[in-house]
Here is the input.
Amino acid sequence: MGSYFDGVNSYSDSYNFFDYMGTGSSQNNSSSLLSSSLMDLQMIKSGSYKKALKAYYAKNPVKKSGDDDSKESIQESGKADSAANLSTMKSASQKLNDSVAKLQKTDYSKVKSSEDMLDDVKSLVSDYNSTVNAAKNLNSYSILQTTLWMTGNVNKSSALLDKMGISVNADNTLSLDEDKFKKAQMSTIKSVFSGGGFASRLSQKASSLSLQSANQIAVNTGKKTYTSSGTIKY
Here is the structure.
């Protein structure tokens, strides 16, 4: 697992994971998110994509920084992923993005109680878990990296989420205590899901995962076309 993070540090410029973020953020901001993810290493090691990472690096060991073969192996990592598994990730992450967007667009001044938000939050938790679980079956370095950033962001907000009954499990999925959520303060729910902050970061990662999955499908099927900026259009 240590070599995995060495690979992130060594090859982020050549593979340019930050281009996939779709946020317009600076590399410094992305590096800050990576740092927060590193603090969750112990949880990640027992999490949903440990098996995928081990399988990939058993076949494609990361070599020393600057090695052309290592850079190529990272870029080629997603070619082992099936169209079905990539489609599952694309669909799950898009649904997650839609769930977050619905909560962001809610007019909280018209919401009478937290119970009125329960169904929407249940959908978000379900879609988040589907996205995390979809990563178990993938080898794509970029998709696994974005999933790592996403779970790192969620873990970082675990104390706030716990106030409304959302807990982070050992495998990085989420659980919702409905009774506790119904008793949560609307101010807490609004602070988590409205505007920027947590919801915005989660939306960014979900959007990136959907785009990365679609791009990898295009690469694997040979149907790729490119925009003027060099990104894949599908």
